[in-house]
Specification:
Shape: globular
Bound molecules: nicotinamide-adenine-dinucleotide, uridine-5'-diphosphate-glucuronic acid
Number of helices: 17
Helix content: 40-55%
Structural class: alpha/beta
Number of strands: 14
Largest sheet: 6 strands, parallel
Strand content: 5-15%
Distance between the termini: 55 Å
Radius of gyration: 24 Å
Strand order of the largest sheet: 3-2-1-4-5-6
Length: 450
């Protein structure tokens, strides 16, 4: 079998690496219109940082996985085409700020229609609005000379930072297809690929639309848990209860469960906000305004949490941070990734720069270019990028920990404290530091809901 994947991003790159590793007899080609990205995948400096990925790429690249810019050639050769392009929130026109921008999906459908010379299975892996498969089918049907296509929905549930484990041992694989003999045959073909390493009982098949909707709903539920615990963190700060203790207690109820209850400065990443807004748009479209408002509040609560954190810093520092140095530890949206898309650190840093603070940012994996690009509007001589956490903290009035990188837990805070003007503050936006110990050292230390 010959598989092509259009879109060499976080999802395309990692998913195909695992398929190539687990199915050595399947030939896979990942194509992208971004030549620099393909060059990076073919180099030693991969465009995506993900624990364990580099080793797998080294094993399969050139064997049964090829990175290429020859989109037309890869489409022609493929029996099955994964579509893994980006589906950002629309920033213009109808549905701006909510609906998914489907121009990349549509352009891929047209490119497939142009170059496919034989029947193919098209697999939507990108997260898309409900009924997008229908649009793809319509474009293909109108533009190909009688060639038959089957469109499947196969949303991806991996999380960045744990992508390799998530792909190797998924909770479930979801495949949606048309309930026709041809649709069922296509579902079976894709299921066979996953069955090379995923137990059959974890491969769930549904209708196309249930599959598309389930992906949006899964992300909405996960994000809702974070907004719920973050809402309670504000109550803890007001009352003196400890959010980590509360989360532990409620998580022990097996109906609630312990995961995704970590209070934080808010969720980030390229998908939670975009997918909830997509759901909100869908609800509005169908006249379900109360349902739309309910889900929209998950995003509003998240914005509020980020703002609450930056406001707290300013208030604690005697209502002014102007010209004060603040160390920012962590810029990625979570640990073990170099991805900064929608990172809550961006909002916090922008707020502090707007208050004329001097920021010294350190992140172990994010490039200085990415940090500067995200803060471009506000960036001025007040923004510096540090090479180590110690350099960032040297002489700072306060430390704001914004990403839960493990290395921050092992810092020598006695050494850091000695280099800071007093009183010295630590704001742990991820609740990973030992606050009582920091207080013994002399810090004014606080966390989220603590
Ligand atoms: P990404 O931006 O990292 O990668 C998308 C790639 O598609 C880019 O390299 C871009 O150049 C390429 N592309 C766009 N249009 C193209 C075209 N017409 N022809 C060829 N290449 C094209 O995006 P991502 O993070 O990999 O996400 C992809 C999809 O997967 C999104 O819909 C996202 O919601 C979904 N998803 C992402 C994650 C995640 O953790 N990042 C997890 C699950 C699902
Ligand atoms: C999320 C989902 O977990 C994946 O299942 C999904 O496939 C993916 O979105 C997607 O569709 O893109 P991801 O965004 O990579 O994955 O990472 P998460 O682990 O979900 O974290 C998202 C954000 O929530 C991060 O900023 C993280 O720090 C924050 N978070 C997570 C919390 O603040 N508290 C928690 O308890 C968990």
């Amino acid at each position: 079998m010959n598989i092509c994947c259009i879109g060499a991003g976080y999802v395309g790159g990692t998913t195909m690496a695992i398929i190539a590793q687990r199915c050595p007899r399947v030939q896979t080609t990942i194509v992208d219109m971004n030549a620099a990205r393909i060059a990076a995948w073919n180099s030693d400096a991969l465009p995506v940082y993900e624990p364990g990925l580099e080793e797998i790429i080294r094993e399969v690249r050139g064997r049964n996985l090829i990175f290429s810019t020859d989109i037309a050639g890869a489409i022609k050769r493929a029996d099955l085409i994964f579509v893994c392009v980006n589906t950002p929130t629309k920033t213009y026109g109808l549905g701006a700020g909510r609906a998914a921008d489907l121009r990349y999906i549509e352009s891929v459908a047209r490119t497939i229609a142009e170059h496919a010379g034989s029947p193919k299975i098209i697999v939507e892996k990108s997260t898309i609005p409900v009924k997008t498969a229908e649009s793809i089918s319509a474009i293909l049907a109108a533009n190909t000379r009688g060639i038959r296509f089957q469109v499947l929905s196969n949303p991806e549930f991996l999380a960045e930072g744990t992508a390799i484990g998530d792909l190797q041992n998924p909770d479930r694989v979801l495949i949606g297809g048309e309930r026709t003999p041809e649709g069922e045959a296509a579902v079976k073909t894709l299921a066979e690929i996953y069955a090379s390493w995923v137990p059959r009982e974890r491969i769930i098949t549904t209708s196309l639309w249930s599959s598309e909707l389930s992906k949006l709903v899964a992300n909405a539920f996960l994000a809702q848990r974070i907004s719920s615990i973050n809402a309670i963190s504000a109550v803890c700060e007001a009352t003196g209860a400890d959010i980590d203790e509360v989360a532990h207690v409620i998580g022990r109820d097996s109906r609630i469960g312990p995961k995704f209850l970590k209070a934080s400065i808010g969720f980030g990443g390229s998908c939670f906000q975009k997918d909830i807004l997509n759901l909100v748009y869908l609800c509005d479209h169908f006249g379900l305004s109360e349902v739309a408002a309910y889900w929209e509040h998950v995003v509003r609560m998240n914005d509020h949490q980020k703002k609450r954190f930056s406001t707290r810093i300013v208030k604690a520092l005697f209502n002014t941070v102007a010209e004060k140095k603040i160390a920012i530890l962590g810029f990625a949206f979570k640990k073990n990734t170099n991805d900064v898309r929608e990172s809550p650190a961006i909002a916090v840093c922008r707020d502090l720069l707007a208050e004329h603070a001097r920021l010294s940012v350190y992140d172990p994996k994010v490039t200085p270019e990415d940090i500067r690009r995200e803060l471009a509007d506000a960036a001025d001589s007040r923004l510096t990028i540090a090479r180590t956490a110690y350099e960032a903290c040297e002489g700072a009035h306060a430390i704001a920990l914004l990403t839960e990188w493990d290395e921050f837990k092992a810092l020598d805070f006695a050494r850091i404290f000695a280099s800071m003007p007093k009183p010295a503050f630590v704001f742990d936006g991820r609740n990973i530091l030992d606050l009582p110990k920091l207080r013994t050292l002399g810090f004014q230390a606080s966390g989220i809901g603590r």
